[in-house]
Specification:
single chain, alpha+beta, four-stranded antiparallel sheet, 2 helices, 16% helix
Length: 74
Amino acid sequence: MLDGSDLYALDISGASFVKACGGPCTEGCVTLARVGDDAWALGDSKRPEAEPLRFTTAELDAAGIDPARFGVTV
């Protein structure tokens, strides 16, 4: 299982982020990209310059974040 050091060592420069909005996407959306077999990057479309947070699949699940809502399969 990956830990925080492993997650943040992954190169996400070519990651393809997709948006999921809870309502109108005028104020910004959460973005998600799969960056490894058990690794995800979660960003903020309002702050694209900010480093995305990294999570394992189990951590996303524990936080109630469903990649399917973004159109991404686990």
